[in-house]
From TrEMBL:
The lineage of its organism: Bacteria, Bacillati, Actinomycetota, Actinomycetes, Jiangellales. The keyword Chaperone does not apply. This is LacI family transcriptional regulator. It comes from Phytoactinopolyspora alkaliphila. SUPFAM superfamilies: lambda repressor-like DNA-binding domains (SSF47413), Periplasmic binding protein-like I (SSF53822). One of its GO terms (molecular function) is transcription cis-regulatory region binding. Keywords: DNA-binding, Repressor, Transcription, Transcription regulation.
Length: 348
């Protein structure tokens, strides 16, 4: 069922109607000319309250009188992503967003004015939704206030989140990676290589992606008839003693939820005279930049980042141009299985 969105951002007419004033009065207030027009303080206060309540933002781009759209797509990241390199996690998402925006004939605008001193960005500043400058927006990164997403959805502002998000009290549009199916298939692949004890190294950061990977791991273990062995430990807590006990328990493969965990397993293995993957197999469930040694990269689950960025823009444009048609506004794209760089048949 399509998620309901309003057709356009609030206008000065909407503000005027709520405040009980003329549109000319609203224009004077929002453009800083209240004093020059001798607008009473109480009237100015009512206009500003209406602006905050509706989330109105003065739009510098002239909208088409026919479509009420300016063909601007906003890009809001909850963390700073520039400058970026081709090895940066967000790079491929943003390339996909840009490529699809070009294909759709839309311009992009990056929102940065809501950044806090700690570098984190909010959707609202002083109660105002800055995203209203654009027809709709693509959101990326870790959401710090799910309530802001719920508010944005309640206001009817069109947006698509890159990454699956569960928002209490709201149904939002998102494009995510199918980590559950990808991880389940990876467990089955390792079992097919003879691994009957596969340890899962989880992280304490419990967002939807981490939960999906864990669910996929448990489902894979259940379907292959092998015992689940999830471990949630910080990298510094993966000690030589823990590693010895784990190997003694029959573990021959590790699924790491973070590259730093995989690096630590490789370090512990080298200290015991063991090699990856001939003695111990290791696969990483996120994108990686390194490997256990020079010239060897980690076997990593492939995240369709470029495709996710493109699909998010494609979905947003559909929401803007055909808001009432039936569509799936929550889309999962398949992950690709890792190569065998650091996974191999279980050691006999």
């Amino acid at each position: 069922m399509p998620i309901k969105h309003r057709r356009q951002a609030p206008t000065q007419s909407d503000v005027a109607r709520l405040a009980g004033v003329s549109q000319a009065t609203v224009s004077a207030v929002v453009n800083g000319r209240a004093e020059g027009h001798r607008i009473p303080a109480d009237t100015e206060r009512r206009v500003r309250e209406a602006v905050r309540e509706l989330g109105y933002v003065a739009n510098p781009a002239a909208r088409s009188l026919k479509s009420k759209r300016n063909r601007l797509i906003g890009v809001h990241t909850f963390e700073s992503v520039f400058p970026i390199s081709s090895r940066d996690f967000y790079h491929e998402f943003l390339i996909g967003v840009e490529e699809q925006a070009v294909a759709e004939g839309h311009d992009l605008v990056l929102f940065t004015s809501t950044e806090d001193p700690d570098g984190k960005r909010q959707l609202y500043r002083d109660g105002i939704n800055r995203l209203n400058v654009a027809d709709g927006s693509v959101l990326l990164g870790v959401t710090h206030k799910p309530s802001d997403l719920a508010r944005l959805a309640a206001e009817g502002y069109p947006f698509v989140h890159v990454g699956r998000r569960d928002v209490p009290g709201a149904e939002i549009a998102w494009v995510g990676a199918d980590y559950r199916s990808g991880t389940e298939a990876l467990v089955a692949s390792l079992a097919g290589l003879g691994h009957r004890r596969v340890a899962y190294l989880g992280t304490s950061h419990r967002m939807e992606a981490q939960i999906d990977r864990e669910d996929g791991y448990l489902a894979g273990c259940a379907s292959m008839g092998i015992p689940p062995m999830p471990v949630f430990m910080k990298v510094q807590d993966l000690t030589p003693e823990w590693f010895d006990v784990t190997l003694a328990g029959g573990v021959t493969a590790f699924l790491a939820g973070a590259e730093a965990q995989a690096d630590r397993i490789a370090e512990l293995a080298r200290a015991r005279g063991l090699a990856v993957p001939s003695d111990v197999s290791v696969a990483v469930l996120v994108g990686t930049v390194g490997g256990p040694e020079v010239g060897r990269s980690w076997s990593a689950l492939g995240i369709p980042r470029n495709d996710m960025g493109r699909a998010a823009v494609r979905l947003l444009v559909e929401m803007l141009t055909e808001p009432d048609i039936a569509r799936d506004d929550q889309v999962l794209l398949p992950c690709t299985q890792p190569d065998h760089s650091t996974i191999a048949e279980a050691a006999r």
